[in-house]
Amino acid sequence: MLEHQWMMSDKPDDDEDASVLVQTRPKTKRPPLYKVLLLNDDYTPMEFVVHVLERFFGMTHAEAFEIMLTVHKKGVAVVGVFSHEIAETKVGQVMDFARRHQHPLQCTMEREE
Ligand code: TYC
Predict the structure, then answer these.
(1) Sheet of 76-82: strands edge to edge?
(2) CA-based angle 49:53:56, to the nearest 5?
(3) Which terminus of the chain has fewer Cβ atoms in its 10 Å neighbourhood, N or C?
(4) How remote is the C-alpha of 32 from its chain's centroid?
(5) Span 38-64, pLDDT tens digits
(6) Residue 28 domain flag
(7) Would residue 103 count as lying in a domain?
(8) Which residues are near ligand 1 (CB < 6 Å)?
């Protein structure tokens, strides 16, 4: 009786399954964070912007006034960094509040690198 001999090329070893990927390092990827930005415009009253920052971003009056002035002078400022869901909620709250008061205030979010 002939005994089968595996040839090097057809031996079913552990390396030949292309669907198996070796985990080279542990998965430690955190979810991305999002910056919430406030944009300057020529019409929204300064006191309204200060109120928005106090109401939706938990700032003191002094903090809110300082950030409002930064936006007024520089055109834009980051007012907070949040998870995607919280950032979307903040942007929605600010945009809705500004629209209800008929101010053109713009609030956006962008992914933090
Ligand atoms: N530039 C506005 C004014 O002079 C004030 C302002 C500040 C508006 C910040 C928007 O995000 C803003 N009344």
Answers:
(1) 76-82, 34-39, 106-111
(2) 125
(3) N
(4) 6
(5) 999 999 999 999 999 999 999 999 999
(6) no
(7) yes
(8) 38-42, 44-46, 49, 68, 71-72, 105
Number of domains, the chain = 1
Tally of residues, the chain = 113
The 3-class secondary structure across 39-68, one letter per residue, is ECCCCCCHHHHHHHHHHHHCCCHHHHHHHH
Q: Which of 71, 76, 78, 102 to mutate to test the pocket of ligand 1 (most atoms within 8 A of CB)?
A: 71
Q: Does any domain span residue 36? A: no
CATH code of residue 50:
3.30.1390.10
**What would the mean pLDDT of 53-82 be, rounded to a whole number?**
98
Does 25 map to a domain? no
Q: Which atom of ligand 1 is nearest to the CA of 68?
A: 9
Atom 2 in ligand 1: which residue has the minimum CA distance?
42
